[in-house]
């Protein structure tokens, strides 16, 4: 799966020289992150306009009609930009990281309810925007990085921030959690 600056999203398959499906054509907002769910049957994209779109992966383009697959869900999760998201446990709960004018830059969403009621909880952290997310399922922790180099650890069971660490002097761009969930590592723009 590839996402581009021009907003296009294309799917390729091993052994095929050409794309098998174009989920989004160029001319859309820049793709900022794409992720598959744990089962691999769905994926989502977030873009620079603050939107998230969720798709089924088993959709193949009909060559005769040229119809493109449509997302089964699209909504604006941040009013300035969306930078990252993670599927939480099941595919129906999603956390997003971005930049909103009200500083609700980390949000938890339930995709099984209507978009107007889908916001489960918003966390006010990373006052200049959140850049990246990681999820530690065993401990039910959400780890986020921000533009000012801070890393935030959120307990999803309690729906509250546990720690805020100044981990870098520049934007946090990557977070990795080890398989035992004892450690996490952050990487910055510098």
TrEMBL record:
GO cellular component terms attached to this protein's record: RAVE complex
Keyword DNA repair: no
SMART domains: WD40 (SM00320)
Taxonomy, superkingdom: Eukaryota
The WD repeat ranges on this chain: 165-190
Record Pfam families: WD40
Keyword field: WD repeat
GO BP terms: vacuolar acidification
Matching InterPro entries: DmX-like/RAVE_component, WD40/YVTN_repeat-like_dom_sf, WD40_repeat_dom_sf, WD40_rpt
Protein name per Swiss-Prot or TrEMBL: DMXL1 protein
Taxonomic source organism: Zosterops hypoxanthus
